[in-house]
Write a structure and sequence with these properties.
Order of helices and strands: EHEHEHEHEHEHHHEH
Distance between the termini: 48 Å
Oligomer: single chain
Number of helices: 9
CATH class: Alpha Beta
Number of strands: 7
Length: 267
Amino acid sequence: MGTLDGKTAFVTGAAMGNGEGIAAVMAEKGASVIMADLNDSVFETAKKIGAAAAYQTDVSDFAKVKEAACDAVRRFGKIDILVNNAGVARMIRVEDMSDELRDLHWRVNVVGCWNCVKAILPGMIERRYGRIVNMSSVTGPRVVDPGMMGYAISKAAIVGFTKAIAMDAARYGVTSNAILPGYFLTPMVMHSASETDPANPQRVLDGIARGVPLGRFGDPKEIGYLAAFLASDEAAYITGAEFVIDGGSTLPETGAMGVLDRKQEGR
């Protein structure tokens, strides 16, 4: 018996990367998984992992989110779990940051979460049961790299949003928690590496992996296992919490010391 048997999960940004990993694990744990993504590859991914349904939708557009959520409830009767994973990340330094790029991060990463909660939470309140898992990041709430201002602002805001939901929805049996991933090998990370060094993005990826105490990128399914736990009844007494999953990347006081230590160990 799976820990999510009988539950219906709605996962955004599910076509690839961490969203795909989350959706795949929740399906393995017995949930009927509904996948949503702006990219039409979500339909192929849904077939691959055996998801119950897929929607091509823009989380920044409330009307589209509401339409998908209502159709999902009509087909499956309820949504027990909401995973707000959809997001964007663009690297640009503060002196070059445009209002348009600032608004893109806010619209997708923050308003996208808001729209999904607004569309799905009322049903959870009515049934007096629900699990909301919001994807934040270590970037913003814990650390930040050059050029990540727009992304950091949005991901820090998600932590506050998560706590506010937790406080307001607790009396209805709804929990709300945030996951703060470090470096996972996703299309978003590979895109950032290409932006950093277009001629040799692998050099960037190798450097990042060396800076992680566990010495590697995370696998998206590893986030999936954490999200599935937070979505289960085993986590019924956890709400308003932040869970860092980063292979220890935020542990070193300075990145250089960690790299030196590992070089010495390899001699």
